[in-house]
Amino acid sequence: MRLGIVPIFEAQGLSDIILSEKGLDLSKFNYIELVDRAYNMGFRHIEITSDLMYVIPNSITEDTIDKLNIIKDEKGVSFTVHLPIWSVELASPNSHIRRASIDTTIEVINFFEPLEPLNYVMHATGALASEFTRLKVPPLMKQAINKYMQSFAIKSLEEIISKTEINPRKIAIENVEFPFELTREMVDKFDTSICYDTGHLLSGMSGRYDPIEFLRTNYDRIVEIHLHDGYERVENNNRRIWADHLALGDGDLPFCELLFLLKEKGFKGPVVFEMGIEKVIKSIQILKEKCK
């Protein structure tokens, strides 16, 4: 396995680059500088946040891809690309929103293919589908709504795979705030892969699963791990409280058992710390102390 990081989560480094005395200066943003910071911290895998292409125009260009390819060849750094999630909803029943989301996803895949990333992490369902999963409606109605949203995600996936002609196994569908059994149906239907997000699972977003059993059951398709801690609690008044993107040790993840199991199975994919740099440092220290 290769330990990785999401450079834009390195908040202090990002603020150093784009903040000035006059405030926010996006013209100063340099993605290669963030990658270099991550490399100098010892990380050899980078997950690229492709939303930056739209949030900060010209932040990632063809020239950036050329430089990333040099870093990959000369320094042995590998890359994955997280497909857009901000303002994107592949499961939207609104055909205009879905059309724009599909086109955006296709554009990003075609743009990053010269980098030959290990895989593309995808949220097959987005914020709207997540919102619907929280509706206070009878279970049968909620199940029908989720299946309805899934039907649109299926149409989107079919078009994305067809138009990019990408190997479906390079698409790693992440478990998000949506019933995972429906996500797994899409994985099987299109022969894609899975990005296992530990914090999403522990916080109950994808349903209630044991994190180790989830790994064993879905290992046949897991190609990437998003590693962060989380928890879900129910208080005395039946109010649900949850958290994710925590440092290891601050939630319920049996992280030593999980990593030992990955090692036992010979997992070769990236294990990406999806948290801020202070939490990453704390997590690595915990791993050294607890996991021998």
How would you describe what is shown here?
The protein is α/β, with parallel strands linked by helices. The protein has 12 helices and 12 strands. The strands form 3 sheets. The protein has an 8-stranded parallel beta barrel. The protein has a two-stranded antiparallel ribbon with strand order 2-3. Helix 5 (95-112) packs across helix 7 and helix 7 (139-164) packs parallel to helix 8. The longest helix has 26 residues, at 139-164. The mean pLDDT is 94.
Mean of all residue-level pLDDT scores: 94
Unreliable segments (pLDDT under 50, ≥5 consecutive)?
Answer: none
Give the proportion of residues in helices.
40-55%
Number of DSSP strand runs: 12
Biggest pleated-sheet summary: 8 strands, parallel, barrel
* Fraction of residues in β-strands: 15-25%
Shape: globular
What would you report as the Rg, rounded to the nearest angstrom? Answer: 19 Å
Task: Give, in spatial order, the strands making up the sheet with the most strands.
Answer: 1-4-5-6-7-8-9-12
Structural class: alpha/beta
Order of helices and strands: EHEEHEHHEHEHHEHEHHEEEHEH
Give me the number of helical elements: 12
Q: Span from first to last CA?
A: 16 Å
